[in-house]
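In response to the reviewer comment on reproducibility (Comment 2.3), we provide here a single inverse folding case reported in full, input and output, so that an independent group could reproduce the run without further information from us. The structure tokens appear first.
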């Protein structure tokens, strides 16, 4: 299974773990990444993810996020095709630029699922005809076990 995690997933393990939902989502993200390291899943990364990570102001958190990102075994690149697809997605919805680029790249790289902890993105994506399923990592792991 090919899985693309958006930037909020890589950040989740470094968010406030005293909140139950955040803690559970963190565990789900870490489980997905572990399965990627063992070869059960193929974790997909992209230059857009790296750009977004490099814009993080908290240097310590950025370093930790990049360490998790090393689980990505496949790497996609921004192309004219992904730019056009991103624009189509934005025209059809209120999905923002980075999120639309993640979806476009996940589609281009034939990901089975794009994981996000962003509820709004998940709901907006559900209304579109996409080539990739967008869902919360906790829901994903619940379906997998």
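Designed residues, in position order:
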């Amino acid at each position: 299974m090919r899985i693309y995690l958006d930037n909020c997933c890589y950040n989740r393990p470094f968010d406030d773990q005293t909140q139950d939902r955040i803690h559970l989502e963190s565990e789900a993200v870490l489980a997905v990444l572990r399965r990627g390291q063992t070869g059960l899943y193929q974790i997909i990364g992209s230059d857009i993810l790296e750009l977004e990570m490099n814009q993080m102001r908290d240097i310590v958190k950025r370093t930790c996020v990049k360490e998790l990102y090393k689980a990505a075994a496949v790497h996609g690149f921004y192309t004219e095709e992904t730019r056009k697809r991103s624009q189509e997605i934005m025209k059809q919805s209120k999905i923002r630029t980075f999120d639309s680029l993640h979806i476009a790249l996940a589609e281009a790289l034939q990901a089975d699922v794009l994981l996000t902890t962003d509820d709004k993105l998940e709901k907006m994506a559900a209304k579109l005809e996409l080539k990739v399923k967008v869902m919360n990592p906790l829901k994903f792991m619940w379906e997998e076990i």
